[in-house]
Amino acid sequence: MQTETISSNHPGKFPTTEHFDLVILGGGTGSTLAAWTFAGEGKRVAVIDRKYIGGSCPNIACLPSKNIIHSANVASLFRRSEEFGIVHRGFTIDMTGVRERKRAMVRGLNDIYLDNYRKTGSEFILGEGRFTAPKTLAVTLPDGSTRQLHGTHVIVSTGTRATIESIPGLAESKSLTHIEALELGEIPEHLIVIGSGYVGLELAQAIRRFGSRVTVVGRRPQLMPQEDEDIADALRLLFIDEGIELCLGTHVRHVSGTSGGSVSVHTEQNGIGRTLTGSHVLVAAGRTPNTQGLGLEHAGIELTHRGYIKVNNRLQTTAADVWAIGEVAGSPQFTHISVDDFRVVHDNINGIDHVTSGRQVPYCLFTDPELARIGLNEKEAKASGIPYRLFKIPMEANLRARTLSETRGFLKALIEPGTDRILGFTAFGVGAAEIMSAVQIAMIAGLPYTRLRDAVLTHPTLVEGLIPLFSSNPVDSAETPLARTADASAPA
Ligand SMILES: Cc1cc2nc3c(=O)[nH]c(=O)nc-3n(C[C@H](O)[C@H](O)[C@H](O)COP(=O)(O)OP(=O)(O)OC[C@H]3O[C@@H](n4cnc5c(N)ncnc54)[C@H](O)[C@@H]3O)c2cc1C
Ligand SMILES: NC(=O)c1ccc[n+]([C@@H]2O[C@H](COP(=O)([O-])OP(=O)(O)OC[C@H]3O[C@@H](n4cnc5c(N)ncnc54)[C@H](O)[C@@H]3O)[C@@H](O)[C@H]2O)c1
């Protein structure tokens, strides 16, 4: 590593400027892959993160939430055990045990990440970073000392945090965010969830399955408003069957009391006020980009009107040789997109033109059962005037789902008339994400749906359900009112 002037890095002294080929501010998944990859290509790379080795996904977001959700699903199976012919004399949920399984997983991931940093020769720097000049960052280390880093290229990937809206009393209520909710050592007596999106729905179901009373307050009348109404309605019925109270189309006016003791959420729906009183409140009402205090103004990096870092479709910021990836760049908020953002920047830095435009954005809501989608749904196709043929079958038509006693939900696919190309696929059911991925691969290959229909797929698998789906009778979009309910008579 090259250094400039002779000076020390101790508090009060002016730090040496250290030169790197690539400095990365914020160590999320895309950043981590960037560090390891560029270092593997012989570049000098430093990653700065103030708290998390690997960023949110392995520490406080995707993987810990899926770990806790799995424990909750085990609890659900315990409750249903007689359905499977297994009788037991009651069971106890020990949230400290649930938490420890998650913590052990996170520790294991952190060890692997640190080991990879060592093996690749990239440097992980624990500290708070901010720009002091173009492509130059000051990092405040845990002991209060400072390092100054300059990168030939810089990537900014500082992510987002849970939005705490300026609702009177909300900040004072010491509400949980997903971070604290994933660290609970006891089952809340009554959890009130503000927000009915991904975090709210996944965690509401999990915590309900641990035995908590749960109420979800959502501003929009429809759960997952971007999805087709039949999907949202099936999700709503699932939550009702789970014993979760849904207050949709409801606005939070103020909050009083303290989460962890007694907390009241004062709401209004169609002009009618209602006070919900519970033991805990979880705020899951969207995300705020982490851009404050980064000194972006010293580096020529501009923000969008929504507060995200302004980038073009090659993920270049308004400053030369400074790139932004992941959630802070306004990219869709999924780890696989943060990974793809890394690929885009990697190629562009290496002189290969690569853009984000037109890429696939598959996703899965990890409720039980899951909701997964790739490509167009009916709502989007109709809004864009795109004609389609709709194939739709209930999960009951999937024989593997029957063996599992998991027949809730349905599969639906939109096909382009004339070409038989798959325009989109949505699954609400057991293994939805895995089934969707099989369809996605067919879409990547540009295969007509008939290739899936006529494929020899292993019996009995969930993916085999694509055969009855694509063998069923399609309906032309001109004849499909939105929100057709699942056709129980579809062929098995
Ligand atoms: C509860 C939850 C569950 C989720 N589940 C899924 C899922 O199942 N699947 C999925 O695809 N996505 C999921 N997501 C979304 C996913 O976690 C993110 O999209 C993904 O982690 C990408 O984040 P990122 O790389 O943009 O930022 P992050 O991973 O958040 O990285 C940003 C990093 O920057 C650091 N940082 C910020 N400011 C500074 C600074 N000044 N100095 C130093 N470091 C700084 C932070 O400490 C952080 O580690 C979930 C999110 C949440 C909240
Ligand atoms: N399985 C996954 O891939 C997964 C899981 C969790 C999170 N994520 C990602 O993280 C992002 C953030 O998740 P999130 O759940 O925080 O945000 P979100 O945008 O998914 O949902 C927030 C919801 O809260 C509602 N809301 C906002 N303010 C409200 C208020 N005052 N009162 C009531 N409702 C209010 C919004 O209408 C919205 O429906 C997601 O968009 C997703 O991309 C992904």
UniProtKB/TrEMBL annotation:
The keyword Oxidoreductase applies. One of its GO terms (molecular function) is NAD(P)H dehydrogenase (quinone) activity. It comes from the Bacteria. Keywords: FAD, Flavoprotein, NAD, Nucleotide-binding, Oxidoreductase. FAD binds at K66, G129. InterPro entries: FAD/NAD-bd_sf (IPR036188), FAD/NAD-binding_dom (IPR023753), FAD/NAD-linked_Rdtase_dimer_sf (IPR016156), Pyr_nuc-diS_OxRdtase (IPR001100), Pyr_nucl-diS_OxRdtase_dimer (IPR004099). NAD(+) binds at G195, S196, G197, Y198, V199, G200, L201, E202, G286. Disulfide bonds join C57-C62. Its cofactor is FAD. The keyword Oxidoreductase applies. The active site is at H459 (proton acceptor). Binds 1 FAD per subunit. Residues 20-339 form the FAD/NAD(P)-binding domain. Residues 361-465 form the Pyridine nucleotide-disulphide oxidoreductase dimerisation domain. Belongs to the class-I pyridine nucleotide-disulfide oxidoreductase family. This is FAD-dependent oxidoreductase. It comes from Occallatibacter riparius.
